Amino acid sequence: MRPDTPTFIAVAKAKDVRPGQIKSVRARGGHELSLANVGGRFYAFSAYCPHNGWPLKWGALEEATIVCGLHLWRFDLETGEALDPPGAACLETYPVRVEDGVIYVGVSTEAKLEAPSSPSRP
Ligand code: FES
Fold first, then answer.
1. Rg of the chain taking only CA atoms, in angstroms
2. Contact call for residues 34 and 23 (beta carbons, < 8 A)
3. Which CATH superfamily includes the segment(s) 18-94?
4. Does the CB atom of residue 75 touch ligand 1 within 6 A?
């Protein structure tokens, strides 16, 4: 396997992430990530905002964009790009597959999913 080939790991049942919902789940090793269902399409991304570490499960979805609940930064869920403010730190995103009602998230064998942490104060 090439080092950049992701390994897909099961993280949740698709029925447990309803349309419009953001859900925090624990993956292999106890690491936490967020899942979002946007009109039946699933996205996986870091559990915490790259700005100040706010839990993104407390954010809001605007189509395929997540708005952090603390300072309202916006990130594209496809690319992780910061949309507002532009050029800010990107959100870590992960490829997603759904098979037989199970959500699988692709992680690099080199990558470590973000460990749970407490948000810092704004
Ligand atoms: S912590 Fe998310 S925008 Fe500041």
1. 14
2. yes
3. Rieske [2Fe-2S] iron-sulphur domain (2.102.10.10)
4. no
| Boundaries of every domain in the chain | 18-94
Nearest CA residue ID for atom 1, ligand 1:
52
Q: What is the pTM of this model?
A: 0.86
CA 68 to ligand 1: nearest atom: 2
* CB of residue 113 inside a 6 A radius of ligand 1: no
Q: How far apart are CA 75 and CA 114, in angstroms?
A: 17
Whether ligand 1 lies within 6 angstroms of the CB of 54 is answered as yes
Digit-coded pLDDT (tens) for 40-62: 999 999 999 999 999 999 999 99
